[in-house]
Amino acid sequence: MSPLPSENSVESYVEALSGARSTAEIGAKLESVLKGMGFKSFAYVHVRPPLGKKLRSFVPPGSRSGNQVHEFLSTLPGPWVDHYLSQDYGDLDPTLQAAVSRLMPFQWREIGVRNDLSNGQRKVLNEARDHGVKDGATIPIHGPDSGLSTLSIVGGGGEREFQDAYQRSYRDLVWLAINTHEAFLNLAESAPDLGRVRLTDRERDCLVWTARGKTAWEVGQILSISEETVLFHLKNVTRKLGVFSKHHAVVKAVIQGYIVP
Amino acid sequence: MSPLPSENSVESYVEALSGARSTAEIGAKLESVLKGMGFKSFAYVHVRPPLGKKLRSFVPPGSRSGNQVHEFLSTLPGPWVDHYLSQDYGDLDPTLQAAVSRLMPFQWREIGVRNDLSNGQRKVLNEARDHGVKDGATIPIHGPDSGLSTLSIVGGGGEREFQDAYQRSYRDLVWLAINTHEAFLNLAESAPDLGRVRLTDRERDCLVWTARGKTAWEVGQILSISEETVLFHLKNVTRKLGVFSKHHAVVKAVIQGYIVP
DNA sequence: CCGCAGCCCCCCCAGTTCTGGGGGGCTGTC
DNA sequence: GACAGCCCCCCAGAACTGGGGGGGCTGCGG
Q: Based on the domain organization, do B59 and B121 belong to the same domain?
């Protein structure tokens, strides 16, 4: 629809995503479209994997903590990426922390001037700059099932050029980021989706209120049924979901989207 | 930038949002821009309020359970909204459940044809249709701090017209929804002290294994500590998260992304 | 019409687990 | 030296588990 010349590349990227068969393919496409928008390099990172989806992850070489890093795409300078991983900067990186509590894209500049950064956080930004990763912005992508990814873009020329490119493509960037995340979700195997069971309305009622911390007796009062009946329904759910207790059932029901507490 | 005639209204809406001083103001603007796109009515709902933000909530009149409902905007038929609230349909509504595990907009039609809906879920869809809320779609907005909102749009004419309007404005709808959510966040007072708490490594360990259905004794075996110590840590978490039991704590920790079970 | 399945409701009980208090003590780090 | 994190212990009462046993209603296929 309404393909402006400047939007052609974005739209065709999004369309191409649905046919992507591998993450590397997504990365290649992403690189070319972002280049076209005037950005030198990028990094797409899974900060928190969505519950119930299997995204590939690995332990970075030289990591001290055995902290898992989830699959990512990046065209940032190799030495910087290696350094970042080996130092577990993921736990420190102020841009990732900002992404947790933001909805809209933000420039790193905004982070850099904040005065509540710790020494370690400032160090990450400074070392990035020393590696040529200087003018940048991050688009947070809050996905379903508590998933969180970020798409960060980095400028190559001066700050002025980056500003212009960023302002010009602000809206496109959000669209790109969302669709990239969606493409990843589609590639990921959805975990034990095979075992989708049918819950009855009453079972859901009991689960919801149990998830809100009510005891069986309280749930009974709320639903105007006896405590025993509540326990009866929860026992059935426990069996259906193949878990060990009503509480385990609640957790699983939440994760798999059977209920919205 | 690059304002197509058809996009003018969307862009001017987004710009106007930053000046909005009240939610009612947002609603009025939203109504007019969505009307312009060919939709009869809409509902913007906070499914889960973001941590650390104070969004207004209330107990709907006639609610049986005292369940809290968060502030929302809606131009849906009044009788339907009243009925929905008084019946606590929020716990049942399949479109809300779908929103939890989706990133991109979806049409209600897709939900309606699924065959794993319970009677109650089907009832909600049917009753909505009887109230003239028939052709619709929902845009999930996964925000920061575990916030989740939905923007649902409803067609007034036939299914064909709705389809056309929906396809035509798919991308704009996402943009609208995100910016609306952002505007709400900006209006809300931030309540940082009510926000995220710090959990220790051991507390997280205990939570994770409890979320997997292990008893305190089993968790103790796994972590090579005593059952009492496990319970001790879980008690502390329960207090920190301000909930009623260790199981409730587990559910909250999962939803809010403290642990990945 | 009957049987059967699915859903919903109620009851019992011995054994297990958790709750919500309390009391310690040992390491580190700021 | 204070404080955070971790670890261990005790107890009475509440809550849950995992079995079992009943019903009743609806809707479907034979």
A: yes
